[in-house]
Design brief:
It comes from Gloeocapsopsis dulcis AAB1 = 1H9. By secondary structure, the chain is of the alpha/beta class. Helices cover about 50% and strands about 20% of the residues. The chain has an 8-stranded mixed barrel, surrounded by 5 helices. A hairpin with a 5-residue loop joins strand 1 and strand 2. The longest helix is centred in the first third of the chain and has 36 residues. The termini are far apart. Bound molecules: ligand C2E and magnesium ion (3 copies). The site of one magnesium ion (MG) has 5 residues, from strand 6.
């Protein structure tokens, strides 16, 4: 009896494993086709100056509108793209498309200071030997000034390839491109270690911002991060601002920039154009 039970459990396990493998494979195939069918779309989330409340630029966030399954979150498909190497062509497309669109906005709204674009880079993308050449070419092709481009990488990407990363950052500096550390606080690095790299800004992960703004909580941790970052001449971008209380605390800590649903969700480019138009003509 025990034996047959064990067997049954084994069979269930096998089935689940199989189903998972099949659906992962399916996801990979679908993703490959999504690129060809142009089912991927970039959404843009405003990044706001916490001093002036003006939009300074956007973060490009990838969306996949799957024919059968509807919207699939990047948290789900970016890891698949990373594992299969599809992140390389996808990342190139995101970079080109977002730089192109940002240049269009700059030309459309010449009376505001030039809008900037933040692009997320995964580990594999950042490790491409010809990355600098690619970025240089895209800047030339789209006409976007290097100063308008900011690249977001996580601490682990930096630390796992420290030598390569140091070299990359130097090259990016030469193009005027800035480097931001994404999801800061969720990794293991210390700020003093990060200081060895030419980093322009830290994005404080939204898990920290989430804990702010309630009565029974103090923002000690964010306060410490902000003070140290400022001592090291880095700016702070707070992610995931959802309430006015959070905004006010972050302003009190002299965080330079913020993004979150309080200001705006990530939006399609047409909606962003309307948003800029509104903010210019009010
Ligand atoms: P991330 O770079 O840390 O992006 C911030 C995430 O927080 C986004 O999730 C954004 O939609 C979400 N968010 C913004 N404001 C709020 C808020 O007020 N509250 C809450 N709860 N969430 C907020 P999203 O768009 O699902 O992207 C998830 C992650 O996928 C990104 O995290 C980034 O690591 C990755 N990703 C997205 N697009 C790309 C891409 O083009 N290339 C690469 N390599 N990774 C990407
Ligand atoms: Mg990001
Ligand atoms: Mg982040
Ligand atoms: Mg994140």
């Amino acid at each position: 009896r025990a034996k047959s039970l064990g067997k049954a459990r084994h069979a269930v396990f096998d089935r689940e494993m199989h189903a998972r493998a099949v659906s992962l494979l399916q996801l990979e195939n679908d993703l490959r086709r999504a690129v060809e069918r142009q089912e991927l779309e970039i959404y843009y989330q405003p990044i706001v100056s916490l001093r002036s409340n003006e939009i300074t630029g956007f973060e490009a966030l990838l969306r996949w509108n799957h024919r059968g399954h509807g919207m699939i979150s990047p948290a789900e498909f970016i890891p698949v793209a990373e594992e299969t190497g599809l992140i390389i062509p996808i990342g190139y497309w995101v970079l080109h498309e977002a730089c192109h669109q940002t240049r269009i906005w700059q030309e459309q709204f010449p009376d505001i200071s030039p809008l900037t674009i933040n692009i997320n880079f995964s580990g594999k993308q950042f490790a491409q030997p010809d990355l600098i050449k690619q970025i240089d070419r895209i800047l030339q092709e789209t006409g976007l000034p290097g100063q308008s481009l900011k690249i977001e990488i996580t601490e682990s990407v930096l630390i796992e390839n420290a030598d390569l990363a140091a070299h990359m950052l130097m090259q990016l500096k030469k193009l005027g491109v800035q480097v931001y550390i994404d999801d800061f606080g969720t990794g293991y690095s210390s700020l003093s270690y990060l200081h060895n790299f030419p980093i322009d800004a830290l994005k404080i992960d939204h898990s920290f911002v989430k804990r702010m703004g309630s009565n029974n909580d103090n923002p000690e941790l964010v306060k410490t991060i902000a003070r140290m970052a400022h001592n090291l001449n880095m700016n702070i971008v707070a992610e995931g601002i959802e309430t006015i209380e959070q905004l006010m605390q972050l302003q009190a800590l002299k965080c330079e920039y913020g993004q979150g649903y309080f200001f705006s969700q990530p939006l399609q480019k047409e909606a962003i154009t309307a948003l800029i138009q509104q903010s210019v003509f009010v």
